[in-house]
Amino acid sequence: MCARHGSNGEVTVLDYGAGNVRSLQNAIESLGFNIHWVNDASDIRNASKLIFPGVGSFGAAMHNLNDRGYVDALTDYLKADRPFLGICLGLHTLFEGSEESPGVPGLGILPGTVGRFRVASHLKVPHIGWNLASPTRDSILLAGVENKRYYFVHSFRLRADDVERESKGSVLATTLHGEEYVAVLQRGHLCATQFHPEKSGSAGLRLLDNFLRAEDLAGTPSTTTAFSRVPTTIGDNGKIGLAKRVVACLDVRENDAGDLVVTKGDQYDVRDKEGGHVRNLGKPVELAERYYNEGADEVCFLNITSFRGEPVSEAPMLEVLRRVSRRVFVPLCIGGGIRDYIDKEGVHHSALDVAATYFRAGADKVSLGSDAVYAAERYYASGMDGASSIETISHVYGAQAVVVSIDPRRVYLTDGESTRHNVLHSSDGKKRFWYQCTVKGGREGRDIDAVELAVAAQKLGAGEILLNCMDEDGQKNGYDHELIRMVRSAVSIPVIASSGAGKASHFTDCFDVTEVEAALAAGIFHRGTVTINEVKQHMFSHGTPVRR
Ligand code: 1PR
């Protein structure tokens, strides 16, 4: 076997330009390895270890591989059983085809077709979050990280039974999302994960390290860990299936001295009551790192004054993202200013360009606020035209990369007043109100409610809803369960609850009552009222599935 890379701390990575591979690059470099990027087919032929981090859709991936003339080299490499790690789509392309792109042939190294999740409606698709991967046997790849939770984000999967029937012994670990499917596959030196090790915290880094350092991936580990396989029956979904995510949110803006700071509002007012100064609760990079080390499942940055300026020219925000993504190995979401705009020189920038800049800087998802409201209004007025920011970004980067952040506030109705909007009642039944969506950081209300926006966002291609509540923001009284329930039941994509967390039990209350997939908080973490670790400890004691 040619040993050009690998042996000297170098690994070959196949990037065909379809999406964000920065996270993988950062993870590999943090482990002390250099990357040799594939520029032509000879790089694949000369590789001694090859990673294929497929991003985007199955059809686009295969189209790119064909277009660049990589298919023969890749097929030869795989047939020769040389060390390979496919990630997510890099796993799917090994098969004959996928329901994601009917009629497009895959590499066909393994028999079978990738299918879409077929799950009950209470389980959301895309499947986003941390699942436990339960190994079927000892392996070098999973040594020391058996039965850990990893970060999954996908709508298509390989059923474990099907793969095992067609390629006996190749399923290395399985997991569950309504049905048991392949989490890790290994046949000889060919390995592939459905999850993203580069976004799976310390467990994911260890798996990558195992792959990069292994002299013989197909060998038996020198020391075996006494792990027992977690039973993977549907009834165990709570244990092995999706953990409830805890998301740390950093609202970022310039303070009056021109420094980029993490701030926090009371119902979106971020100036303190006494001096009128922008509250400064810390530095974005340091806080993000602290939350990662405390166990945050995801970190979200909201550039809260972006509507005033030119998003992409906000280099400090990009620099924050670059620095954070080199040290924080869980998903990073960035919001604020994802929209079309014309810069001072009169040059037009599309929302897709803005998003692409953030992805290149290290973001895994972008969150759209104001522009999503405008897109939804146009959707209800004239249908889909493929041109909205949600559609264009989702088309290129996939639904899982597009979050829509909803900033609703209650609008109370007077006695006898009627509205076409979705209405809720106060707990004593005396007041009626609807949730009006706002734009520009809550400064302007629009004639569209939170449910309408969520439904339109899903139709246009968003993969997740971040549901704030202006009335509860910074109030520490707990989440708005009624709002969350109402929105969650209207969509089939995951919802992140936000606004109002004041103590650890607010998270478990919210998960119990609303069954929401994730809960986000800001103020209590910034002020140190409770740490993420304490929230997770409480969730664990309470019996809520959690990544610890
Ligand atoms: O409209 O696409 O440019 O996006 C702007 C983004 O900035 C939106 O996602 C919007 O929510 C956010 N934003 C704008 N102004 C503010 C503000 O506070 N003045 N922050 C703001 C919104 C809401 C949450 C907050 C939770 C949890 N902040 O991010 O962190 O409410 O807070 P808590 O746990 O302390 O209660 P665009």
Protein model, in words:
By secondary structure, the chain is α/β, with parallel strands linked by helices. The chain is built from 18 helices and 28 strands. The strands form 6 sheets. The protein has an 8-stranded mixed β-sheet with strand order 2-1-3-4-13-12-11-8, with helices on both faces. It has an 8-stranded parallel β-barrel with strand order 14-16-17-20-21-26-27-28, surrounded by 9 helices. A hairpin with a 2-residue loop joins strand 12 and strand 13 (190-193). The longest helix has 13 residues, at 201-213. It is globular and about 75 Å long. Residues 249, 251, 264-265, 268, 270, 302, 304, 306-307, 335-338, 367-371, 405, 407, 441-442, 468, 473-474, 498-501, 521-523 line the site of ligand 1PR.
Number of helices: 18
Share of residues in strands = 15-25%
Small ligands present? ligand 1PR
Q: How many strand segments?
A: 28
Structural category is alpha/beta
Shape: globular
Low-confidence stretches: 1-7
Helix content: 25-40%
What is the oligomer described by this structure?
single chain
Overall pLDDT confidence: 92
What's the main sheet like?
8 strands, mixed
Read across the widest sheet, the strand sequence of neighbours is 2-1-3-4-13-12-11-8
Radius of gyration: 23 Å
Determine the N-to-C terminus distance: 40 Å
Question: In a nutshell, what does this entry contain?
Answer:
By secondary structure, the chain is α/β, with parallel strands linked by helices. Helix content is 30%, strand content 24%.
